[in-house]
Design brief:
By secondary structure, the chain is α/β, with parallel strands linked by helices. 46% of the residues lie in helices and 20% in strands. It is rod-shaped, with a radius of gyration of 41 Å.
Length: 354
């Protein structure tokens, strides 16, 4: 750091960096010259004057050397009040308490646990959501993963059977790769086993039985657990009833959001049905919400709504490193006041006043 007598402390660029605690003190600096003017006018009539003849002096004042000496003496007579003014100004600057504040913001989030359960059955190949339901669902799911921070996210896929494709992880790059590889041919068993898919998700998220000294279980209890189920809702396979699975999820404190992907359309070739009733019942039983996605834009808004509802708690800690620099300007003020005192109480002061 620069010494206090360095001109560096008078730099305007430096003052732009300062945070002034008491700015009122700086606003008093322009009032100091006003006090000097008031004092001057009040004392001007009280001063005693001695009238003398200066004709000979003016006759000798024609030479340039004498004129230069008189101009210097005229300027030096203001040295005392200027020193007092500068000294008081620096004292007021010190009183304003200039400081540099360096702020560090630390955000800590424990995150939440999210399991994505995505239907990859043949019915998800329907094109009512272009290019088809599954492709639209996986693209929006990837965007949802991008919007999460510090959350552990896993993936379960299901058709006639359910498989845990990715455990809870914070490796979002790996998870998005799994999502990108989803297709309707990865599970050969036909049907839609919603209950088995929920059971797989619960198994990944449920708490293990803690020991008496297990602190990890306490931390795990504090994490919010969510299942997001995307399907056409037509439960036609599996060993576990979806409603029973939803009740089991509620017992483990897991909330379930269900999304019905597609819209009911009947054609002469194939009847495409979307069973909203079972998905609504699952969401109600699982203390969650049911959503209907009839197009890609609606599907994106649903994930945005879930993203808004399931915010992980964030603890923000702000650290401030405060450096005070009032001592520097206090030293400057004392130095100028000592100079004024020196001028006042020595022969220089008497000469300048005469």
């Amino acid at each position: 750091m620069e010494p206090w007598y360095s001109p560096h402390w008078l730099s305007p660029a430096l003052w732009k960096q300062f945070h002034v605690v008491y700015p009122l003190a700086l606003s008093l600096i322009p009032a100091v010259p006003v006090l000097f003017l008031i004092r001057y006018y009040l004392n001007r009539k009280a001063q005693q004057r001695l009238n003398i003849s200066t004709g000979q002096l003016y006759a000798q004042a024609g030479s340039p050397r004498v004129q230069l000496r008189r101009s210097w003496l005229s300027l030096l007579r203001y040295l005392l009040p200027v020193s007092v003014f500068i000294g008081i100004g620096f004292l007021l600057a010190a009183l304003a308490r200039p400081q540099i504040v360096r702020t560090q913001r630390d955000e800590q989030s424990e995150g939440i646990d999210i399991m994505l359960a995505i239907d990859v059955s043949e019915s998800m190949s329907e094109t009512d959501l272009p290019p088809n339901r599954l492709v639209a669902a996986r693209k929006v799911a990837q965007l949802f993963v991008n919007s999460r921070k510090n959350d552990r996210i896993g993936l379960v896929v299901f058709a006639g059977e359910a498989f845990s494709l990715c455990p809870l992880t914070t490796d979002y790059g790996l998870l998005k790769q799994y999502l990108n590889d989803l297709n309707s041919q990865m599970i050969r068993t036909s049907g839609t086993a919603i209950g088995d898919a929920l059971a797989r998700c619960i198994n990944r998220m449920r708490d293990r039985i803690p020991s008496s000294t297990d602190t990890a279980h306490i931390e795990n209890q504090e994490r919010t657990k969510v299942i997001i189920l995307l399907s056409d809702g037509d439960n036609t396979a599996g060993n576990l009833d979806p409603i029973t699975a939803a009740r089991l999820a509620r017992a483990f404190g897991i909330r379930i959001y269900t999304i019905a992907v597609g819209r009911p359309v009947a054609s002469s070739v194939q009847a495409v049905t979307v069973d909203e009733g079972i998905l609504k019942t699952i969401a109600t039983t699982g203390n969650g919400s049911f959503f209907r996605a009839t197009d890609t834009r609606r599907l994106q808004s649903i994930f945005a709504e879930i993203n808004r509802l399931e915010k992980s708690p964030i603890r923000v800690r702000i650290y401030e490193d405060i450096q005070d620099f009032y001592r520097v300007y206090l030293y400057w003020g004392i130095a100028f006041l000592l100079l004024a005192l020196l001028l006042k109480n020595t022969i220089f002061g008497n000469v300048l006043e005469d």
